[in-house]
Amino acid sequence: MAEPNRRAHSLFPVITLLLTFLCAMAAAQNKNGGPPPKQQLTEPSKTHNAQQVSKPVDPAAEGEKRFEINCGRCHRPPDNISPRISKSILQHMRVRAMLTQEDEYYILKYIAP
Amino acid sequence: MWRTWIRALITLAALNWVAPCKSHAQGETPLISANAGFISTTTGGQTNLQPILNPVVVAPIGSKLLVEGSYEFQGFVARPTPDSPFDAQYFGSLFYLQMDYIVNRHLTFVAGRFLTPFNIYNERFSPIWINPLQNAPLIFGIGTRTSGSSDGAMVRGVVAARSGWEWNYTAFFSAGSSVHQFQSGRAFGTRSGVFFPNIRLEVGASYERFLQNLHNNSTGAYLSWQPNRVPIDITAEYAHSPQGSGYWVEAGYQFKQTNPLGPWMHNLIGIVRVQQFFKGVPQPNDALLNANAQVAEFGFNYFLPKTVRVNASYGRQFSDAGNFNQWTFGVTKRFTFPAIPARNN
Predict the structure, then answer these.
(1) pLDDT (tens digit, 9 = 90+) per residue, B36-66?
(2) Cα(B226)–Cα(B213) distance, integer angstroms
(3) Contact with chain A for residue B151, Cβ under 8 A
């Protein structure tokens, strides 16, 4: 009984390392999945497909939805954020929660309209 | 080496502070976010009080570069013996002091001192204003030796994302250090997870190779799930190392949909956590129990206005070393403000 257990434990790090290697390789080669250019951040709906352009989203509502999906898994929305630091907070969270620039745009509209 | 690092980070942060940068007017002003808390814990009849202040400084340098640090001032007030008066000790810990370079969503370079990304508790739930139960899980010491922080470099990002899933990764290397405030273990590790945003489920796995003194592996897995229809938050972790292994499962129910006693219950979260630890071969300073143990805990969080939170919990630990009750009560407050005053033009 001990042998299969030991084999399973020795396979686990190998599989995890392999997955990470694949992640890094895929990330390095992923040229089409990058964030939109910075000038498009002001109007992210232009980067969407035609269906989304014809039906514009409410940025604050979309921001609330994205906040709940990404940030709300760990904490509640902050109270009374100063507009002067709103982007700094989002940059801090981009590193932790791996948000896109588009997420950043909409969440900003929600937490600091 | 560390002095050079600290000087470089402080110089960059200071330059950003004093420079009349145009981006500051666009919301990129450096900020201070502080978490203050007071936690009372009674374990087996012995009470200790912990006042905590945890300032976080964030200084962006443009839209790609970020310098951030977190330091905790903590007091520990307890009676050394049951009949003696309370004795207070104060100490500080540097959680992280790191520089982040955001290449894009797929790749962020992090250098400096950072929270060790093993499973999710350390990175996501360890701040006192976030964690629903103030006691760290029994398996917290697995994969996070020696201090919960690492000194070195890390890469992280999203490998690929589609509308229904998102695959993220983190990989790091840490140098061993016994320098005060910069203690870390020599190690490397990785974490990878898949998040399904439509059903709000994330599952992942972690691996860490400890390369200091006794070389060994730590492995882990985690789950985080917030079902769409029910306001419940389920989090779980499993971790294994030669020193021990175990798991914890936590569920938090927010009274959003049922409020028989009034709308004030919307801010109430009831929490249950069960955990189990299996002793391995103990090592010095591994921060793990020396006995098998099971713990069941119940508690609540209540969110008051102005980001004040009150939490309390009761737990019962059943262990080969003895059974005991544990009561905790805490108040936490989080505040965030610009680090430099506004200029009146």
Answers:
(1) 999 999 998 899 999 999 999 999 998 899 9
(2) 40
(3) no
Secondary structure letter of residue B14 according to DSSP: H
According to the model, what pLDDT value does residue B239 have? 97
State whether A84 and B226 contact (CB < 8 Å): no
**Closest CA of chain B from A47, distance in Å:** 15
Comparing CB atoms, the residue among B66, B303, B334 nearest residue A91 is: B66
The residue extents of the domains of chain B are 2-338
Of the candidates B193, B111, B157, the residue with the CA atom closest to the CA atom of residue A100:
B157
Instruction: Name, in order, each residue with C-beta under 8 angstroms of B323's C-beta and a sequence gap of 6 or more.
Output: B316, B317
DSSP B49-78: EEEEEEEEEEEEETTTEEEEEEEEEEEEEE
Query: What pTM, to 2 d.p., does this model score?
Result: 0.83
A24, containing H or E segment: helix A2-29
d(CA B251, CA B248): 10
Report the C-alpha gap between A48 and A53 in whole angstroms: 6
- Taken as a whole, chain A contains a residue count of 113
Query: Which structure tokens are listed for A100?
Result: 């896109």
Q: ipTM for the complex?
A: 0.84
CB atoms within 10 A of CB A65: 17
Mean pLDDT (whole number) for A3-9: 50
Put simply, the answer to whether A81 touches B336 (Cβ < 8 Å) is yes
Tokens 């599952």 sit on residue: B203
- C-beta neighbour count of B254 within 10 angstroms: 19
CATH fold group of domain B2-338: Porin (2.40.160)
* pLDDT band (50, 70, 90) for residue A41: very low
Using CB atoms, pick whichever of A26, A78, A83 lies closest to residue B160. A26
A residues 38..97 contacting B (CB < 8 A)? 38, 69, 72-76, 78-79, 81-89, 91-92, 94-96
pLDDT, tens digit (0-9, with 9 covering 90-100), for B182-214? 999 999 999 999 999 999 999 999 999 999 888
The tokens of B258 are what? 């049922």
Quote the distance between the C-alpha of residue B166 and its chain's center.
Answer: 22
